[in-house]
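Known limitations

Structure tokens in this collection are predictions and should be treated as such. Users comparing against experimental data should check residue numbering before alignment. To illustrate the layout, the record for G10 protein is reproduced below. The input appears on top and the generated tokens appear beneath it.
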Amino acid sequence: MPKIRTSRTKPPPEGFEEIEGILDDYARAMRDAENESHEGKRVKESLWPIMRIAHTRSRYIYDLYYKREAISKELYDWLLKQGYADANLIAKWKRQGYEKLCCVRCIQSRDMNYSGSACICRVPKSQVKGNQVVECVHCGCRGCSSAD
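Generated tokens:
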């Protein structure tokens, strides 16, 4: 969640005004997802919409800086410092094989059923048996392997 701006914080760098509206839309969607009813959902399932919005917002900032080169390094660093994007996730997206990674938790082997393994969403769809629907328990991802 982005930090609340007060009079003590440094003003945002030049160019923030251009993307502020879109980031406000993401913040509004995040509030709606947080306030959504959790009736009939598993505990982890109620967090999936929040994870998706955080992923989308981080991907938007990543694309602005690395793909489209539409924002400055100063603005990019400020956005990461203010919590608008997940710096650890973006660092993984820059590595080969992790370009579509949904969340950092899916590559941590300590949270998985079998030691040394990865999340089911990291398995390429060609290696999944039959027409089985694959869904990550942690974030609800249906496949983020770069081989797909």
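For this record: The chain has two domains: 16-94, 98-148. Residues 16-94 form one domain. Please report discrepancies through the issue tracker.
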